[in-house]
Each structure stands twice: as structure tokens, then as C-alpha cells.
Amino acid sequence: MLNLKMLGRHSFIWLNILFLAFPLYLAIVASTHDMRAMTSFPLPHYFGKDLFLNLKTLWYYGIGGSLDGSCATLLWNSFRMAFVIAVGKICLAFFTAFSLVYFAFPYKKLIFSTILVTLMLPIEVRLVPTFEVVLGLHGLNTLWALTMPLMVSASGIILFRDHFKQLPKNLVDAAKLDGAGPFRFLIDIALPLSKAPIGSLFVILFIYGWNQYLWPMVLITSPKATTMVVGMRYLSATTDIMPEWNLIMCMALIALIPPCLLLFAMEKSFERGLR
Q1: Cα 25 from Cα 105, distance rounded (Å)
Q2: Which residue, among 189, 180, 164, has the nearest Cα to 93 in the 3D structure?
Q3: 197, 224 in Cβ contact below 8 A?
Q4: Domain 67-274, what fold?
Q5: Engineering a disulfide at 63: which of 5, 98, 194, 234 sits with its beta carbon 3.0 to 4.6 angstroms away?
Q6: From CA 208, how far away is CA 206, in angstroms rounded?
């Protein structure tokens, strides 16, 4: 009876894995064929021989038929945007949470409640006024305009606030007895003890920044400043006949590589931060 239950659970898990992996398999297959195979019926379910040709086409010519829209440029733009967003969110959230926990000032609870309210105001809600501000500051196609509106993170503040509240109060008392000020306590005690949540939050926020679509699509007008996610949308609209799905799927696979590498590289830190 126990073996039947285990068999049923494992079968259910493997069915879910196959269900989730099948679209990825189709994307890999599509990226190995040329356009002629992708317009035939039925669609191929086996690997082709054009993977390196598709990679070369994307790497050198990409979405704009020039080096400005090459996949290498798009990867660099996406990496810069995701890295700056992740680092900016972590720094702002870390210092804000530190101030809310270890400093006494008026209306502290009201300020924290206001921060919680911002969870209901994502970039989609404030898209139009934010775009008007950026446009007035001549920020189209610039890195600071892509990243600054996305840097404030209420969820990051909540995470670090809960983390600081779990630290023993004896550490604060010991630091005061040793004559350490707030900055010394922050650098020597709070920061080293926060490596695990910083690591896990960096992975989450990097992937969040990497997958940004709506804000970059509104703000970017030049292929030279386009990101990978937005580039796939432009690539699907470069022809009046039919999108080159082999190149689009190949580009999607390339876009998966940096977040996956980061997750594998920081797997242990990511797991420690979630405990």
C-alpha cells in the first residue's frame, strides 16, 4: 500500500515536470531549425542542424539588422539594468529597515504603514505619471530612467526589518558598551549577519529586473538600448509576413542563461536566506 502511494506521488511529480518541460523542449527544437521548417506542417519535433547559424545571426545582427541591435548588446543592456535594480533595491531596503528597527523617531509606525501601502502601487499603476516625469527630464533610452523607478522595494524593507528584529538585542547592548556607534554597528555586526538574506534577495531581484517588460518597452525607442525581453517582442514584429519563430525561440533560450547561471552560482546562499 505504501509503495502504491509512493508510486502515485512520484508519477504525479514526473507528469508535472514533463508538463512544465515540454514548452522548453519545443523552444529548443525550434531554435535548431530554419524558417522553412517552422512554416511547414506538422511542426518538427526533432532537433535540427541550424542552431549555430541562428545563434550567429542573433549574436551579430539581432533585432535591428546591425550591431546596435545584436544579441550581445541586448544581453549587456539587460545585465546592467537587472544588476543596478537589484543592488539599488537591496541598498535602499537595507538602510531603510535598519533605520526603522534601530532608530527612534516620530511617526515611525506611520512611515512603515505608508511603505506597506506602496505594495499596491506597482509600476503598471504609476506608468503614465512616471513616464511624464522621465520624459520631462530627457531620460528616454537611459539607464537611470530604466532603473530608478523600479528601485524602491517595500517587500525588501519588510524582509530586512523582520531579519533585524530577529537579531539578539544583546548585540546592540554589547556594541554600545564597546563604544560603537550606529555606523560601526551597521558595518561590523548587522551587515555580516545579513549575508544570507542579501544573497537570496539579490537572486530574486536580479531575475525581477531581468524579466522587466512593460517599463522598458515604454521607455526604450532605440535598438541600441533595448533589453532581451523587449528585443524578443521587436524581433517578432520585424517582418510583415510571419515572425521568425526559430530566431525568437533561440533568443528566448539565450535570455534564460544568465538568470539560471546566477541561480546555480548562488544556490546555497539563496537557500540559506529563505530558511
Answers
A1: 56
A2: 164
A3: no
A4: MetI-like fold (1.10.3720)
A5: 234
A6: 5
Question: Mean pLDDT highest for which of 53-62, 120-129, 176-185, 213-222?
Answer: 213-222
In this structure, the number of other CB atoms found within 10 A of the CB of residue 184 comes to 12
Write out the three cell numbers for 127: 506608468
Residue 30 has a CB neighbour count (10 Å cut-off) of: 22
Whole-angstrom distance, CA of residue 232 vs CA of residue 229: 6
Which amino acid type is present at position 116?
L
- Checking if the pLDDT of 1 tops 80, the result is no
Would you list the domain boundaries of the chain? Answer: 67-274
pLDDT digits (tens, 9 = 90+) for 46-55: 888 888 888 8
Instruction: Measure the CA–CA gap between 95 and 273, rounded to whole angstroms.
Output: 18
- CB burial string 227-249: b at 16+ within 10 A, e below: bbbbbbebbbeeeeeeebbbbbb
* pLDDT value of position 185: 87
DSSP secondary structure string, the chain?
-HHHHHHHHHHHHHHHHHHHHHHHHHHHHHHTS-HHHHTSSSPP-S--S-HHHHHHHHHHTTTTTSGGG-HHHHHHHHHHHHHHHHHHHHHHHHHHHHHHHH---TTHHHHHHHHHHGGG--TTTTHHHHHHHHHHTT-TT-HHHHHGGG---HHHHHHHHHHHHHS-HHHHHHHHHTT--HHHHIIIIITGGGHHHHHHHHHHHHHHHHT--HHHHHH--SGGG--HHHHHHHHTTS-SS---HHHHHHHHHHHHHHHHHHHHHTHHHHHHHH-
